[in-house]
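FAQ

Q: What does a record look like?
A: Structure on top, sequence underneath. For example:
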């Protein structure tokens, strides 16, 4: 009889342990929200295509800070080539997979709004300000990130590959 109680207790303990592990992993995943995987410092290289048709190599650094239980993101993206630079920052909040927020580019003193969606390691946004609009796509897989910017302004396109902690 003691053996039966011990065996039953052991099964109950294992079941409780599995349930607790599932609850913890679900809440950890939930806490990361739509910006999961973005937190940290990133750096890398890519190309920038300018309105005059020239293309240049570009070096970039990005920092992402996730807060608000995983539903807020603060981003900075600084890039420079031999003749061009930009310094973007954004503050974004999510409501489910929909995101919205504000952005600014300090070297040109412009700012505006952004809207889009985020989840599964991807952020897709449309940014706009007076006289400027662009589409931005960020995809993160593990410690690798790709950034693509497309606009009709001075910068026609940017493609960057970055590594976390790099």
């Amino acid at each position: 009889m003691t053996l039966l109680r011990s065996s039953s207790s052991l099964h109950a303990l294992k079941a409780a342990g599995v349930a607790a592990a599932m609850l913890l992993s679900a809440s950890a995943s939930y806490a990361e929200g739509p910006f999961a995987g973005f937190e940290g410092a990133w750096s890398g290289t890519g190309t920038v295509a300018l309105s005059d048709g020239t293309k240049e190599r570009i070096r970039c650094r990005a920092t992402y800070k996730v807060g608000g239980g995983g539903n807020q993101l603060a981003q900075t993206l600084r890039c420079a080539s031999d003749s061009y630079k930009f310094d973007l920052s954004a503050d974004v909040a999510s409501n489910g997979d929909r995101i919205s927020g504000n952005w600014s580019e300090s070297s040109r003193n412009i700012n505006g709004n952004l809207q889009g969606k985020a989840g599964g390691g991807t952020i897709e946004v449309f940014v706009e300000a007076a006289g400027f609009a662009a589409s931005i796509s960020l995809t993160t897989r593990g410690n690798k990130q790709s950034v693509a910017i497309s606009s009709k302004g001075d910068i026609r396109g940017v493609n960057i590959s970055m590594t976390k902690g790099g």
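Q: Is there anything notable about this one?
A: Helices lie at 2-32.
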